[in-house]
Amino acid sequence: MPPPTVARPPHAPPTHCDVDRVAQRPRTVLLRHPGYPSAHNILLALPGADGPAGGLHHETARIACAVVAANRWDGFLAADAAGAPLDAGPDDILAAREYYFHVPGVPQYPVVPSFREWRFPHGRLPAVWQAAAAAACEARAAPVRAASDLSTALALRDGSCRMSACEETCRVAHLVPRQEEAWFCANAMGSLYAAQTRRVDAAIDDARNAMLLRADLHLTFDQMQFVFVPKPLPPGEPWCPFVVHLLDPLARELRRLYHNVPLQAPLGVTPEYLFARFAWAVFPFLEDFLRHPVARKLLVTSDPDPITLSPQKCALFTRQARRSRSASPKKRGRSAVAEDDDPQEEETEDAEPLPPRRKKARCSPRASPSAASAAKLHNNESNDPPHLSGSQATASDDEFDSICKAHLEQERQRSDPSSAWKAEQDWLAEAVTRPLAQSELRRYWEARGYDVLEEADLDHVSPHAES
């Protein structure tokens, strides 16, 4: 008789009970701008996993285009550049390869180049979002909590991941990300609950701007792999009208498990923050449009009217360009971008030089520094300030220099009673006036402040490399 066992069978791959309603191979739907040549007019290219054959929910696609077109909710999708509206309902699935987004009366409508340039439409959400908000967010308003107590507030309100219903390894997921706090304040997003908070900007850490997500889902949420949008539900079902909508065509497991699956009810977040999150995830899809070699008509926060910018200026609004300038203390306004005709000059001004690094000498033990190197040493290590010389220095400057030198000398005597450092500097001053023996090279470069490589590594390195 076999011994009893407590082992259970291994898990099968996770799946959803209604996986057949989701496309196994999503198609990419191109949403074009009718105001530009066909080679340069793809406004957005969104993955479509709706329906078994693949496609894109009509209203979700239309609102995504309207967001980047500066909240033009009157815009519509058409089959071609001529502009006849589609004969399709808002909840139909777009199954064709491409569509055109039109704004009535404005063939070359301006676009907003990035989320940080986008103005939130207070009191003017699209109708489908307003209806979903009325149905979803009445359930339970969590009390306003301090940021340090946000985890507790969500644990009490949500209790589990709002996507998977898992209770363990949940994390706090902000809808408007904390790194967008400047945008949050500039668009008065905290004014929704300003009366209940000490600071308007404190609402970014309010429970209404956050939900619990399982740790892995939180990570993919911050990677913009999905958003939450309103879509129709089966009649009579008490489900939350906000469903998961996948934006990453390669996320096969996420698509199979969560695409078009409603969030867990009750949902204690405010719909304005859900909509801001939707816009935040849509704007990166606009970046290919901005990189094309054609001028674009843009709408930015620093200008009330649309402006036309060169391809080089348009590319400055992409995330890659922002990352390259993110450390710069000198930011230029968007109006300055429009006025400056030399993009190369602008990038030079925006870029911050890297901090100086300690040099590592790559010197050969078979040769000595050149005479030019010796002269350079004297010039670079002079005690005179680089911007003052001779008559330019005032008496007060000389006085200040004397005090500094006296203090420095006093500190050196205290920390180096044997005068080893002074002896080394005297040797260095003498060494630069003559050729050095092979045995003196390491001492020379180390006295200069370099880290010297081992001899075995130096055979192929030039003796005069001084970067």
From TrEMBL:
- This protein is called HNH nuclease domain-containing protein
User: Which positions fall inside the HNH nuclease domain?
Assistant: 161-229
Q: Which InterPro entries match?
A: HNH_nuc
What ranges does the record list as Low complexity composition bias? Answer: 364-375
* Biased composition annotated in UniProt, kind: Acidic residues: 338-352
Write out the coiled-coil annotation as residue ranges: none
Where is the sequence biased in composition, kind Basic and acidic residues?
402-415
User: Which source organism?
Assistant: Botryosphaeria parva (strain UCR-NP2)
* Region Disordered: start-end pairs: 318-422
* Comp. bias regions, Basic residues: 320-334
